Amino acid sequence: MGKIISFANQKGGSGKTTLSANLAVLWANSDYKVAVIDADAQKSLTYWLDARKKYYGEEPMGIDSYAFDPRNLKEDLKKIKRKYNFIIIDSPPSITFETIQIVKSSDYIFVPVQPSPLDLMATIPFLNVAKEERKKTTVILNRVMPRAKLTEAMIMRLRYAGAKIARSRVSGKIIYAETFSVGRGVVDISVTSDASKEIINVGNEIVRNF
Ligand SMILES: Nc1ncnc2c1ncn2[C@@H]1O[C@H](COP(=O)(O)OP(=O)(O)OP(=O)(O)O)[C@@H](O)[C@H]1O
Ligand SMILES: [Mg+2]
To answer: Is the minimum distance from the CB of 12 to ligand 1 under 6 angstroms?
Structure first.
């Protein structure tokens, strides 16, 4: 039975779409059956999928996509769950009816957070929503700067707020933005790059925790 994984956070620009795309590629390239749902009206993940189709042409992508209908999300997911190992939902940056439906329908919620005080402030209310729904929720630190003392301080604050934090972190690297714009993931380019190692670690940590 497939796992429904959402990348969600009220805070905009925290890395939800970047991680959705990169993990979809990682798992699809590892022969898992993967589907994505772009739940954000900005449609960044849909743009990425279209770019991917252009880049790879007729080659089968290994990533299916489904439309987002918040009113029928649970039923829609029930229908497709058996066909996939992972169904990834890229959530919009809000706490609205739509996001709550995503939270309710997810088996696991991953919350990308940039380790900065402002980002943290916008993240805590979302973590509380997930907690109220009694969902397994893990923070993934994104755009982490090397050796920044601030990162450790932010980790303390998140722990104090009761958050579970993934051991694997994603650093700030231009390759994430570059690959996204052409519909690729970092592991498409090379599986041994530093960025790929990060994505592989995040992916493995997610799979290990199921
Ligand atoms: N680790 C990273 N290193 C460098 N750039 C990154 C990284 N993660 C995300 N970005 C860039 O930051 C911007 C925001 O990322 P992304 O779109 O994934 O966030 P989001 O949470 O989906 O945003 P939104 O809330 O608007 O949906 C993008 O331009 C993306 O390329
Ligand atoms: Mg997004």
So the answer is: yes
pLDDT in tens, 56-98: 987 878 999 999 999 999 999 999 999 999 999 999 999 999 9
**Ligand having the closest approach to the CA of 8:** 1
Cα 185 to Cα 28, 51, 86, 130, 193, distances in angstroms? 11, 11, 17, 28, 12
Distinct helix (H) and strand (E) counts, the chain: 9, 7
Dist. CA 186 → ligand 1 center (Å): 14
pLDDT in tens, 16-28: 999 999 999 999 9
According to the CATH classification, is domain 3-208 in 2.60.60.20?
no
What are the extents of the domains in the chain? 3-208
Minimum CA distance residue for ligand 1 atom 31: 177
Tell me the CA–centroid distance for residue 40 and ligand 2, in Å: 7
pTM listed for this prediction: 0.97
